[in-house]
Amino acid sequence: MKVLVIGANGQVGTHLIKSLAERGHEPVGMIRNTDQVKAIEDAGGKTVLGDLEKDFSQALYGCEAVIFAAGSGPHTGADKTIMIDQEGAIKAIDEAKQQGIKRFVMLSTVGSDDPEKGPDNMKPYLYAKKRADEHLKATNLNYTILRPGSLSNDPGTGQIRAAESLEDKSGQIPREDVAAVLTEILENENTYHRTFEILNGDLSISDALGQL
Amino acid sequence: MKVLVIGANGQVGTHLIKSLAERGHEPVGMIRNTDQVKAIEDAGGKTVLGDLEKDFSQALYGCEAVIFAAGSGPHTGADKTIMIDQEGAIKAIDEAKQQGIKRFVMLSTVGSDDPEKGPDNMKPYLYAKKRADEHLKATNLNYTILRPGSLSNDPGTGQIRAAESLEDKSGQIPREDVAAVLTEILENENTYHRTFEILNGDLSISDALGQL
């Protein structure tokens, strides 16, 4: 499957390109400048230029699915939270609709279902993610919204827990496992029109997804 | 009509309380601290305590209409753009729905129909306003969305131009005139489910609204 990865240069994105390629997909990483080409190609992907703050419609041409794994990150201001996390995502969703690309996977976060319960300094980010998720849910795309808890850079374990709302949201999950889950759900129709949370656990990814 | 004014302490809000009171309405200004009571009472309004970043549902009790005229202003960061201009508005809309308050007037801005065309430094604000407006349009409330162009502190003239999309968006409009328009449209059913722009012009407010 030819799949556009938005945020390919991010911390999850790099694992994701590799994981998709290993699974036999054809990942295309959307990048903002050519310095990033080598890392994506080394991971087994192709690249296309596109900037979330501009018109990136051409990046979606010919793709069968879109995975939105971009984030403005903690080192930019809330203006980028609006422009990237919220509006970049909404533009990608609208563009997928426009181009008839039915499969859309959103990397969201635990807490975006109820931003008011989050810490004050996280609320703007959680609201931005919530609005993007809501925009996606209101489409007729075959969407999946994945909400991992706290991310770590530990090596992946392949072991997770998953639920619409995890009772215990403590713990972490390696970014490598998040990438593996994104890859696993791409063609898993059981996850269409679903929103769920993941964290480290003791089930294989396919077992955890099967129990949803 | 008992009407809650959110943003009563703002630059449009103070004119609005006065204008509503003069028209025989019963304006209630939502304020964050008791220092603001005197200004509202001097303008002819009552007050209720409420903070857009917290639960302010009690501020709406018993009101027949809500006018959202709050703005985080140019001196705060984009985190407040999300929390006040976007999410504060969305909370007010949801709360009006919840409490069965059918009439909702939103003070929006020229440019929020197409933020991409705005200057880069205004885009986050314009997107936040757009999302709030869209949220309102998706309800079954009797809404009106008013989008003035560039605001001035000149004295009101009572003369405006109005259209769904003004061909010529140059010029300004005094905040006092914006307040007069908000008051005029409150009970004007011709403006229900409508979104329109206003600027200085040469028609009386009622004539301009009648031509919509």
Describe this structure in words.
The structure is a homodimer of 212-residue chains. Chain A has 212 residues and is an alpha/beta fold. Chain A has one domain: NAD(P)-binding Rossmann-like Domain (Rossmann fold, 3-Layer(aba) Sandwich), CATH 3.40.50.720. Helix content of chain A is 34%, strand content 23%. Chain A contains 6 helices and 11 strands. In chain A, the strands form 2 sheets. A 9-stranded mixed beta sheet of chain A has the order 3-2-1-4-5-6-10-8-11, with helices on both faces. In chain A, strands 7-9 form a two-stranded parallel sheet. At the A-B interface, α3 and α4 of A face α3 and α4 of B.
Summarize the structure.
The structure is a homodimer of 212-residue chains. Chain A is built from six helices and eleven strands.
Low-confidence stretches of chain A: none
Q: Kindly report the greatest chain-chain contact and the residue count on each side.
A: A-B, 14 and 14 residues
What's the total count of β strands of chain A? 11
Radius of gyration computed on alpha carbons of chain A: 16 Å
Q: What is the count of structural domains of chain A? A: 1
> Span from first to last CA of chain A?
24 Å
Q: What class do helices, strands and sheet pairing of chain A give?
A: alpha/beta
Shape of chain A: globular
